[in-house]
Structures are given as C-alpha cells and as structure tokens.
C-alpha cells in the first residue's frame, strides 16, 4: 500500500527472504509500548485506558519462555534447510529421523506420534528461507531501536521509515535500505537486547 516502485514487480513482496518479515515484526514492537497502546487499548464499556499498572505487569511477561520460542524457530529453520537440501538418494531423511535429530538439538523430548512437520505449511512456500523470520527480526529490532531513541510516536522518524523502507519495496538491496534508515551499518545489538541479552 505504501510502496511506490516504478516497476510493479519491485514491490515489497519481492524483497529477499531474509528481509520479508522485517516490516511486520518491526510493527509488533508497538504492542509493547504504552504510548501506542493508550491510543486504543481501552475498556469497551467504560472507555477507560489500559491502566499503567496492568501494562507494567504485561511488560514483565515479555521474555517468559523466549528461549523456547527461539529454539522452536531455529528448529523449524533447520527442518526447512534439511528438506530443501539436495541430498543424494541414499542420504535422504524421513520425517521421524529429522524429528529425532531436532529433539536432540533442542532438548525437547521426542514423541513419535507427533507429526507436526506434516502441517508445517512454510515448507512449501518459503523454499529454504524460513530462517528469514529470525534474520528479519534482527533487522526489525535494529530499525525499531531508532524509534526507541526518538520516541515511538515520533512523526519524523515514522516518515523516514516509510520513505526509506516501505516506499522502496525491492528497488534497492535491503541492506542499503536499512543502512539509509539507520544512518549506519545494521547490527544485532537491539535484537540481543530484546531477548534480555546485554551486549557488552
């Protein structure tokens, strides 16, 4: 909707797989910002705004089970890589073999009645790019770090984001768009901080 490429095929859906989810994951950050929530998070009967005390309690839960969530994402990425790889016929792996390997890696007990891989829709649609969810998150958090400095409701920063990221679509390499928005090389500091890991 906000993309303005000269050639329609260079729209936002044509960006590289490791950037595809960056804009959507970037926007998820506003769900954890009181300045944004207070604009619409209201009691439907009374119109009372979300109490700060309740928001503070919610914020304290943000990192609960974050490790498990990322182990799952990495496991799904490994599954995707495994099935998209071009093994010789003698080395092809079945669903149960891959599930057992992931169980060992993730330390999540293996259940041979669980065939979750059979319902993993991204196997067909992402073509060895599922890892892009996590890599996109690195970009998303880095871009959001600019809003954390200027204010999450800062209009000038929002316009710059729209012009440098959303409007460009796939007309430039994604790394260049991110560098133009950040005014520097991207890094993983904000991503690590979002996981509760201090980068020192």
UniProtKB/TrEMBL annotation:
Residues 14-196 form the Peptidase M3A/M3B catalytic domain. It comes from the Bacteria. Gene3D superfamilies: Neurolysin, domain 3. Its cofactor is Zn(2+). Binds 1 zinc ion. Keywords: Hydrolase, Metal-binding, Metalloprotease, Protease, Zinc. GO terms for molecular function: metal ion binding; metalloendopeptidase activity. Pfam families: Peptidase_M3. InterPro entries: Neurolysin/TOP_dom2, Pept_M3A_M3B, Pept_M3A_M3B_dom. GO terms for biological process: peptide metabolic process; proteolysis. Belongs to the peptidase M3 family. This is Zn-dependent oligopeptidase. It comes from Flavobacterium restrictum.
């Amino acid at each position: 909707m906000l993309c303005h490429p000269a050639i329609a095929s260079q729209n936002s859906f044509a960006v590289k797989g490791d950037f595809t989810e960056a804009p959507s994951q970037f926007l998820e950050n506003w769900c954890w910002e009181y300045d944004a929530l207070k604009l619409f998070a209201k009691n439907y009967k009374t119109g009372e705004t979300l109490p700060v005390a309740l928001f503070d309690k919610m914020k304290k839960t943000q990192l609960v089970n974050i490790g498990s969530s990322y182990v799952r994402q990495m496991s799904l990425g490994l599954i995707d890589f495994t099935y998209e790889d071009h093994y010789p016929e003698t080395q092809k792996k079945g669903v149960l073999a891959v599930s057992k390997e992931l169980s060992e890696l993730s330390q999540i007990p293996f259940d041979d009645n669980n065939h979750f891989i059979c319902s993993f829709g991204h196997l067909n649609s992402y073509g060895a790019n599922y890892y892009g969810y996590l890599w996109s998150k690195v970009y998303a958090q880095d871009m959001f770090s600019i809003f954390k400095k200027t204010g999450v409701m800062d209009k000038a920063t929002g316009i710059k984001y729209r012009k440098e990221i959303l409007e460009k679509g796939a007309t430039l390499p994604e790394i260049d768009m991110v560098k133009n928005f950040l005014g520097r090389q991207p890094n993983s500091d904000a991503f690590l901080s979002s996981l509760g890991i201090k980068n020192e």
